[in-house]
Each structure stands twice: as structure tokens, then as C-alpha cells.
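[Automated response] Your request has been received and processed.

Submitted sequence:
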Amino acid sequence: MAERDIVVAPGASDALAAKLIEEAGFPAVYCTGGGISRGRGFPDLGYTTLTEVVERIGNMTEVCPLPMIVDVDAGFGNVLTLQRSVRLFERVGAAGIHVEDMEVPHRRKQARDNIVDIREMAERIRAAIAARSDPDFLIIGRTDCLPTHGLQEAILRGRRYAEAGADMVYVEFLTNRKEVEAIAREIDAPKLISLNKGENELIPASELAQMGFKLLTLPAELQLASIHAMRAMLTHIKRHGTSAGFDGMVSFPDRNRLVETDAHKSIEQEFLP
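Generated structure:
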């Protein structure tokens, strides 16, 4: 990240998506917590556990060498489980995590009441930093307060989380250029920005780099595109009784190249009697 104007990290919820991101030439992968939960058939409401996510990230790092930033929500519990999260994600080869100031799962009906006190969140960041063994393992402080507390509170929290030692600051729920420019201008720290089609104003990475953002994640795009493609295929099969005439798919050899079937077969053959 010291060498690039901005790192663009598309979101992946499984190892196959991570390998596609690598194949496309991106420098990093964003391991989307919401995507992992939805890939298991659940909404993004705190259903996944620490060990489930660690297992998924371990599978992704096993087959893809790109740096991976992991969404750990609020740390799967308290500061002790947050510290355990840091240690486990380091162990399976992640490059960093972001932790948020929202209670996950929600404990109160009103969204505003699920935003934790700014001092408590600063201590979460300090706890995460204390748990890491590699100083290059990124600890990113995320605030979800914008919709309920407003832009100025989000700026205040971003500054405070940087002061607490976060390597990077992430203000979630930015919807338009005016908000993005305010965050870029008012928070003097490395910043992550997350954009999704249909949720945010889509500002090109080159412009975000000029504003000073260091990391752009696009969490949902691959999964949304996958759902669209699978629905199209299923509709075609239901209508025609076969996939004949449906061209929106790769070939078997292309799929085998992606997962490096020949290389694995070669290893297998070397050690078979």
C-alpha cells in the first residue's frame, strides 16, 4: 500500500471468487462478511461465527496468494474474542481486518442505540493492535454511525479511531460525492472506502486516489453478478429443458484452468505407485 496510489479490492465470499480476482489482475481481495453470510444462505445479521469465517478465509488464503482484508464485524463478542480474531486471522494468512463500532448482532431495536460509545470503540482498536504479532497486519477502524448520528460524528469518530492507533479508517454508508469529499478532506489518516452499485455514487478509483483514499473495496458486486447469472441459467433450463443455446458460461477446460487441475494432477501422478 505504500507503493500504490489506491488499492482496488473486489469482494469475495469464497475461494473461487478470490482466484477470479487474482486472475483479473487485482492486487488484493476484500473478504466480505455479508457475502460469506449470504453464501451460507443467511442474511447479514450476525449469523456467522468466528470459527466459520476463519475456516472460510483459511480456504481462500490456501489457494490465492493475494493480500486479504477481512470483515470481522464487531469482533464476534467482546475485546477478548476480538483479540482471538486477530490471532486466528493472522494464523490463516489474512493481511488485515476491519472492526466496527456497531453491535453485531444488534442488541437493541433502534439502530442508533446499537452504535457503541466512541471510547469503547477506541479500546476495541487498542485491543486489536495489542493482539497482533505482525506489525504489517492491518487494523482498520470502521464507523457505522453516519445514518444515525450524521456526517460530523462520523468525521469525529474517524479521527478518534486513527488517534487510537488504527492503521486505516473506514466510514461506512457514504452515499454521495459530497460526503466522500468531506471524509477525504476532514480525516487526516489512511482511508478505506466501500462502494456498491445501487447503494453509493460510484466514483472512479482514480478520483478517489486523488482525494487521498488508499483502499477501495467493492464488496457485493461479484456475488450480485453471480446471482444474476445463476438465475438466468435456471430460467433458461426451466424454459427449454436443457442448457443448449445458453452462452453465458465458461467451458469445462476454462474452469479446470482456473483451479489449476493439471498442476494438481501432476503432483498426484508424481507420488502414485
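Summary generated for your ticket: The first strand starts at residue 7 and ends at 12. The radius of gyration is 20 Å.
If you did not submit this request, please reply to this message.
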